[in-house]
Design brief:
It contains 11 helices and 2 strands; from the N terminus they run H-H-H-H-H-E-E-H-H-H-H-H-H. It is mainly alpha-helical. The chain has one domain. It has a two-stranded antiparallel sheet with strand order 1-2. The longest helix has 31 residues. The chain is elongated.
């Protein structure tokens, strides 16, 4: 945590002193706030589109709504809550240099709201991953239940630990968000950022690779099997974003200008949570496309069969 240099009563003093040769600007400072606002408005709309199509598909077309669908709906609500709070954080300095943010504006509000946003983000990612794992558990032809259940337990445990890190990160707990408290201590933030990012990356990798191992012995026509594997692997495509978010978190951990750097990590967190929702919705997309665009499915997945002909692809899956 970072301590102010002078009195907390000063309204025109930044949270940290500016670099040599830089003059604080409290009127029209350099800003990344417009990027925060744009991404937190557009991405929830994109993920809403995919979540709606998923619920329409499972509820109307296939009539097979399951617990994984409810998890996606909950994940979207949590992601929107996180995005809303990230927008609110711009009122308290997010996206500005710390020397351009009055201490009275920044203190308490920034870290307290940031903790809430982080909690919603972590829970949203957790439910997105659980939704994918439940789908794998229920609908793939072969079910290595131990591997899936183990992954689910790991996802739940590390998600809860990192989502509620503010409960145990500092002693006293108020030291997490109140920079005026000088007593007590906090854990190293680099450890928290790296641990969370590493676990996200590892579980994303597992989710990406599970369908390959689960389908390697399934006897299907070549194009049908390739299509099935690709569709079921879409839930792990968020892995690349997770890696980028990890690197951004590590870079930010050593930079005292956290309000400015938090814009980058907040944007990548936002991209990650909404992309996770989109990826979790893709495996059930075949039924929607077959219903409204049958030629696309037949050409792509059914070994270039005749338009409208069902060659039996994805039997046993809800996506059929």
């Amino acid at each position: 945590m970072y301590s102010p240099i002078i009195s907390l009563r000063e309204e025109n003093v930044g949270v940290i002193p500016p670099p040599p040769g830089v003059t604080p600007n409290f009127i029209n400072p350099p800003s990344r706030q417009h990027i925060i606002l744009i991404t937190n408005i557009i991405l929830p709309l994109v993920s809403l589109l995919f979540a709606t199509l998923r619920l329409y598909t499972t509820g109307i077309i296939t009539r097979s709504v399951g617990s994984d669908d409810y998890m996606i709906a909950l994940s979207w609500l949590l992601a929107c809550a996180s995005s809303s709070i990230q927008c609110l954080l711009t009122r308290y300095g997010a996206g500005l240099h710390l020397w351009d943010v009055p201490f009275s504006t920044f203190n308490v509000h920034f870290f307290k709201l940031g903790a809430i946003a982080g909690t919603f983000y972590g829970l949203s990612i957790m439910f997105s991953k659980l939704s994918i794992l439940v789908l794998l558990l229920r609908y793939l032809p072969q079910k290595p239940k131990k591997a899936i259940y183990t992954t689910m337990v790991v996802v739940i445990l590390y998600s809860l630990i990192t989502s509620f890190v503010w409960l145990y990160a500092c002693q006293p707990i108020e030291k997490y968000w109140d920079l005026s408290i000088t007593r007590g201590s906090c854990i190293k933030w680099t450890t928290v950022f790296v641990s969370s990012g590493v676990m996200n990356t590892v579980t994303d990798s597992v989710i990406l690779l599970l369908p390959i191992f689960m389908l390697r012995k399934v006897r299907l026509p070549r194009w049908e099997k390739i299509g099935l594997v690709l569709v079921m692997m879409t839930g792990g495509f968020v892995l690349v974003i997770s890696i980028i978010r990890l690197k951004t978190s590590v870079d930010m951990a050593s930079n005292p200008d956290i309000a400015w750097e938090s814009a980058c990590i907040g944007i990548w967190m936002n991209i990650e949570q909404h992309t996770a929702i989109v990826c979790a919705c893709l495996p059930v997309g075949k039924a929607f496309i077959r219903k409204h665009f049958p030629c696309v499915v037949d050409y792509t997945f059914n070994n270039f069969g005749t338009c409208g002909e069902d060659n039996g692809g994805f039997r046993g899956l809800r996506a059929t």
